Amino acid sequence: MKKITLFFISLLTFCYGYAQDLVMTVSVPSGTTSCRLSGAFWGWDPAGGPVGVDNGNDTFTFTLSPAPGANMEYLYTINGSGVYEDLKDNAANSECTGRINSGNMVTDYSSYANRVWKTSDSLIWNEIYDDCSEATISNEVNSNYCSTEIFHLGLPAEVNSAVNLTIEKTSATTTKITVAASDITFLDIIGTPIAGGAATKSANDTSVSGEISTTLTWASTPPTDVVIQFIQWRKTSTGGATWQFNNATTPFEGVCGPAALPEEDTSLSDLQIDNVTISGFSSTTKDYTVELPDASSIPQVTLVTPTNTNATVGTITQASAVPGSATFNVTAENNVNVATYTINFIIPSPQVAAPTPPARNAADVVSIYSDAYAVIPAINLDQGWCGANAIAATTADGNAVLAYKNQACQGIDFDANRQDLTGFTHLHVDLFVKAGTDLVGKVFNIKTVPGTGAESVFPIDLNALNPQPVPGTWYSYDMPITFSGPTAATRQVGITSNLNNVVWYDNLYFHKNTTLAIKNFEIAGLNVYPNPAQDSWTVKTQNIKMSSIEVFDILGKNVISLKPETTEATINASQLKSGLYFAKINTANGSNSLKLVKQ
């Protein structure tokens, strides 16, 4: 029976044959968008041969079905150029001797040098564009982190935290993470994928001086990107500080290959903003974030120097506003490899909003700065006691907050609407101190100024608080207070702090330590969007007509007045300067206030 079966199969093969395919894969320069195969079978028409399938890893695959029945002479073109790869010089320099001797290339060394696939060759054919050697093709792609400089929380301003991070695949189920710095002492990977059980972590490897590495082993090959939630490290030069980088994301198949050839190089040797090399500059870094104290000026990209002087820099699109971005391309000498560089200019602020204050009776709270309670009419948040621009308006997760800037103090004036603080027992403020800030000796002192008589001072020593604030998170200060001066006609509040440019605050108010079960002073369904806005805000209520809307700037000046008499109104912000505003919404049932941010 076995002999009969073999004979039958052999007969089928003899009579009909098997239609076998030729699968050709070519490795191309990074950034290649298309690749075409052409040659004698297609009349040497550069637009006449088949187009390869982009594999997404700088390779293209051609499937010729069935495989040619005769030897095939051919070349490749890329990016729709209609220009064949030129292998004449390669052949003349004896770089292609092996392929010529095997019959896989024909050339006269001066006018042509063509590739040849022979019917006796393998049906799996791997090559390199514009190169005579055979390619090693895999699913591997470039890792997003190949000795890439990173900083604490991704902030280049944290220059002392800088290390170089490498994440790359080392086998079908392992990823190696390496952090390098001359004085590195500690590395830990926490959060997912370790915490979720998707991967296990090896002991740290410190065998290479200036490096610490660990290997993650996965239960099975991850199908897509891997996300390392928290990478933590320490350095001798920064004492006991623990630095952290969040959500490092890269393809699991990502590897770090050899350095690019000079003609493929799109790296930079210098990048300057306003004639100064950008903070955290690295020749291979493509994206930067630059923190600015305010939006008073827009930085300019003034110098871009490619590492290979034969590379070209395209048109620089400068940022038009802050926040904003500048971008430009660098094209390699080969006119194939192109890299895009982006510089993001931001005014740093917390990434999460401050805690929402509880509902309180309107008579039991005097709000200096908060969305939750009514705004004091004509309040001036920047009186200029120690100089102008003591604060800057920004947002935290879409919620308006104030950044304490360069002055020694901030004056807040509401003399035209003095407040009676008699019977008020508590002071509240939400503070966010920039991550990595040393709190020793740091204060955020608040005082009240009456119409006449002594001031009342409420010192806040952050290092002495219990529990102590954690830089990088919101801290709610809510403490009993005793006024040392008159309270019936309070006209000003002052803030004195040495946390310049590293502290933000929200929800500054005095209260009587009472709360309401229901926010009965709120307008049902009151909502504003977008916020921040560039041109306009839309204000809506839930079936309650708004009789009037008044918008004030931080100096207390009324800049917009509307009488919509509808449940939805648009506030035109196009003529307003960027910054913080307050809107008082009036209805037949009561009033409420909103903070508005104009970008």
UniProtKB/TrEMBL annotation:
Name by which UniProt lists this protein: Fibronectin
Signal peptide, first to last residue: 1-19
Secretion system C-terminal sorting domain ranges (all copies): 528-596
Keyword terms of this UniProt record: Signal
InterPro entries registered for this protein in UniProt: Secre_tail
Keyword Signal: yes
Xref: PROSITE patterns: PROKAR_LIPOPROTEIN
Lineage: Bacteria, Pseudomonadati, Bacteroidota, Flavobacteriia, Flavobacteriales
Species: Siansivirga zeaxanthinifaciens CC-SAMT-1
NCBIfam families per record: Por_Secre_tail
